[in-house]
Specification:
Blueprint (H helix, E strand, L loop, with lengths): L7 E3 L2 E3 L14 E4 L20 H7 L2 H11 L9 E2 L12 H7 L3 H16 L3 E10 L2 E4 L3 E2 L2 E15 L8 E10 L5 E8 L10 E4 L2 E6 L3 E9 L1 E11 L5 E11 L7 E9 L5 H21 L6 H23 L3
Parallel strand pairs: 4-15
Antiparallel strand pairs: 1-2, 3-5, 5-14, 6-13, 7-13, 8-9, 8-11, 8-12, 9-10, 13-16, 14-15
């Protein structure tokens, strides 16, 4: 269900509707890949959503349609011989017990890492097909601001492009970003990484740091997001297994929009005051008050011990309220 700002959660990713008019690009309705997005060595930074299950993949791309595509595009694939896995907790068909013992402690990440590893080391056949379910996956967002207000904010982002596939998709993209509000002195950061191919690393760094002004009208709330210029795709990953047939796994991952130059974009999100209940309004009003008072105090020159102590108190309370707002999805 969309939030009051129109964004919504799909598995591990916060996205905007695929038909949104707020992006400068149009993500393709379908995407195909010929390799597995890299999982790096950290389960928390996996390039694809390993929590997806079969029913979610079928809702986006029915199995019969997936079978048709794989039979045309994955050499040797036959739907009658394919094994459909319910989730990434299922082992690749025929995986030896010694392999299972090695990867089992890592749960779904271990199973997926096995798929990625054998495909690369043994050159086993693999392909992905997916349909668009959302766009502009969130990297990080600023705190909620109650209008009327005029807020300056500065974003900084660096992007390392490590590879481009034959489909002209930037499939190796690491993103880190931050938002800093003028006078507050607290930077909010986040990161999103997928499809890293370290063996083909040709790192390019893209940065931007222009200071922007965000005018929030009376009766309106606002927030600044940094989002990746990408589509989020759900579908199926087909891979050759140990029995020399094929397994299908449910698949969900973001893919950078082909041929679009920018890697990240700033989104100024807005919502009407009438969308929020009394408790939410009270929380945001208190957060706005603390932020204003902290900003005013920080601007004073030559603070004494009491002033510095009060600044620290404001900082603790600001973080507590920010956590409460995020817990409400705001």
């Amino acid at each position: 269900m969309p939030s009051k700002f129109g964004d919504f959660q799909v598995g591990a990713y916060n996205v905007l509707p695929k038909d949104t008019k707020t992006t400068a690009y149009t993500a393709p309705d379908t995407i195909t890949l010929t390799r597995c997005p890299s999982l790096l060595t950290d389960p928390l930074r996996a390039a694809m959503d390993l929590g997806i299950v079969k029913s979610e993949a079928e809702a986006a791309l029915p199995l019969d349609d997936a079978y048709d595509w794989f039979e045309k595009n994955l050499d040797g694939f036959k739907r009658g011989d394919a094994w459909v896995n319910g989730s990434w907790m299922d082992w690749l068909t025929g995986a030896p017990s010694v392999v299972r013992q090695c990867f089992d402690p890592f749960g779904a990440f271990g199973r997926a890492y096995l798929v990625q590893g054998i495909q690369r080391q043994n050159n086993w056949k693999l392909a992905v097909t997916g349909r668009l379910v959302g766009v502009a996956p969130l990297v990080c967002s600023g705190n909620l601001i109650e209008g009327p207000a005029k807020q300056n904010h500065k974003e900084e982002a660096s992007v390392s492009v490590t590879d481009t596939t034959t489909e002209k998709i930037e499939a190796g993209l690491g993103v880190s970003a931050g938002i800093e509000y003028e006078g507050v002195g607290v930077q909010i950061t986040g990161s999103l990484t997928w499809s890293l191919e370290t063996s083909h690393a040709t790192t390019v760094t893209k940065t931007f740091g222009d200071e922007l002004e965000f005018d929030i009208d009376k009766g309106e709330w606002g927030r600044v997001d940094i989002r990746v210029c990408a589509g989020l795709y759900t579908g199926w990953l087909g891979v050759q297994n140990y029995k020399n047939s094929f397994d299908l796994y449910p698949f969900r991952a973001p893919v950078h929009v082909p041929d679009f130059v920018s890697a990240v974009a700033v989104h100024q999100m807005r919502a009407k005051d009438s969308e929020f209940g009394p408790a939410e309004k009270a929380l945001v009003s208190e957060y706005s008050r603390i932020t204003r008072e902290r900003k005013a105090l920080a601007a004073q020159a030559g603070l004494d011990g009491d002033g510095l102590a009060q600044l620290a108190v404001y900082g603790v309370e600001q973080r507590r309220l920010a956590d409460a707002l995020r817990a409400l999805g705001l």
